[in-house]
Specification:
It contains 13 helices and 16 strands. The protein is an alpha/beta fold and about 425 residues long. The protein folds into two domains: about 220 residues, Acetylglutamate kinase-like (Carbamate kinase); about 120 residues, VC0802-like (2-Layer Sandwich). The strands form three sheets. An eight-stranded mixed sheet has the order 3-4-2-1-7-9-10-8. Strands 12-13-11-14-16-15 form a six-stranded antiparallel sheet. A two-stranded antiparallel sheet has the order 5-6. The protein is globular and about 75 Å long. The relative contact order is 0.10.
Length: about 425
């Protein structure tokens, strides 16, 4: 059994949905669970619709609802689905459900409302994909992930109840294959808590959904279909002549994800590593090409240097006002604040009397931190910086990538070199 994951770009329009169907048809003898994200930029549109709902802007809410409806209707029409009364009944019911949800009174709990509304994009994308597969007589079963992925109630970043989810997967998905239906269509990103309220796994959580289902169903492999030929050693937005990584280990993929590589969601790797289920990153544009294999073996990890580049960074340095040492108690206070305020530290470094972190730039966070710690620390900052991480570096690569840069912080281990720089 295989798990496929298709992101928003792979289902952004009618032609893209046709391409997804053609990829699935290349595996006629396989049992496949297909995890689908919201179409195109639908999640962004849903967030705007949510904000209109929260603010009580009825005019904007109506306009965005129509935009959402028209976008999906046009895709369905171009796929020939609007002539199918059965499909249109389901289609209209979904939008009617959303419309009712948007008329409910705001609970004053934004994260709860976010999860209740924003996952609608995945429900519509999978309805259209499933409907089109039926239209071309490719039998499939649409499964609601809100009845399969069990989580806690940490809205917008829910934690998975693995054993309950496994039980539900075996009961609701594995039995479909027992009935000789070979394709299951379900949603990424969304789940449910014990009281059946919708939860989400965090932005870009559809990759994680694929990993969860693979673990629960003991899949043979997972394939994430992207608009790139596989995992590249650098982001082509920043670097020319990027090289595809043919094979890397789970450990290497986790390292690259931790440092900011955006191809694989960081949470996705762990359940696959635990059961040694290989993960492939392949191109939905050229699906027959090999792509990248992520598996247990690490023998190819150091063959190619990888570069991860983050712009719009900020350094914050904390110096005790009484010039005492930066000790464990100081670190405890600082990291307690970072954790409580969901501040992700991209790099850290300390000396005897100072502690420095690199984070994504946010002027409001900088002001809040300075104000909060003003009685204890001098807080100094530099903004408009870049963070470069090089895995499996050599000096030639470092010299090339840091040329004409002012280096503010430099760190090296045996495998990784990191630089906070200014142009």
């Amino acid at each position: 059994m295989k798990v496929f994951k298709f992101g928003g770009a792979s289902v952004k329009d009618a032609n893209a949905v046709v391409n997804v169907a053609e990829i699935i048809q290349q595996f006629p003898k396989e049992n496949i669970v297909v995890v689908v994200s919201a179409m195109g930029k639908t999640t962004n549109l849903m967030e705007l619709l949510l904000d209109a709902y929260v603010s009580g802007d009825a005019s904007k809410k109506t306009k965005l609802f129509k935009q959402l409806y028209d976008y999906h209707y046009i895709i369905a029409m171009e796929l020939g689905l609007t002539e199918d009364a059965s499909f249109m009944s389901i289609f209209e019911d979904k939008f009617a459900e959303l419309e009712v949800n948007l008329e409910e009174e705001y609970s004053e709990y934004y994260d709860y409302e976010y999860d209740r509304l924003v996952g609608f994009g995945e429900l519509m994308s999978t309805t259209i994909v499933s409907g089109f597969l039926n239209h071309i007589q490719l039998e499939n079963r649409w499964i609601d992930a809100r009845k399969v992925i069990r989580t806690d109630s940490s809205y917008r970043n829910a934690k998975v109840n693995w054993e309950k989810t496994r039980e539900l997967c075996q009961r609701k998905i594995a039995t479909v294959f027992d009935e000789q239906c070979k394709v299951v269509i379900t949603q990424g990103f969304i789940g449910h808590n014990q009281t059946k309220q919708t939860t989400t796994l965090g932005r870009e959580g559809s990759d994680f959904t694929a990993g969860i289902l693979a673990w629960c169903l003991d899949a043979d492999e997972v394939i994430i279909w992207k608009d790139v030929p596989g995992m590249l050693n650098a982001d082509p937005k920043y670097f020319n002549n990027c090289v595809k990584l043919d094979q890397i280990s789970f450990k290497e993929a986790i390292e690259l994800s931790y440092y900011g590589a955006s191809v694989i969601h960081p949470k996705t790797i762990k359940p696959l590593q635990n059961k040694e289920i290989p993960l492939y990153v392949k191109s939905f544009i050229e699906p027959k090409n090999q792509g990248t294999k992520i598996h247990a073996s690490s023998q190819n990890d150091d063959k190619t240097a990888s570069f991860i580049f983050k712009e719009n960074q900020m350094l914050l340095s904390f110096v005790p006002k009484d010039f005492s040492f930066i000790d464990e108690q100081s670190m405890h206070v600082l990291f307690g604040y970072f954790a409580e305020n969901n501040i992700k530290v991209n790099l850290m470094q300390n000396s005897a009397i100072s502690f420095t972190i690199c984070i994504d730039y946010n002027s409001e966070i900088q002001k809040e931190i300075t104000e909060y710690f003003k009685d204890v620390f001098y807080v100094r900052y530099n903004d408009n910086l870049e963070l470069l991480t090089i895995r499996h570096f050599n000096q030639k690569v470092i010299d090339f990538l840091t040329r004409d840069k002012e280096i503010l912080v430099e760190q090296k281990s045996r495998q990784t070199a990191r630089f906070v720089m200014r142009s």
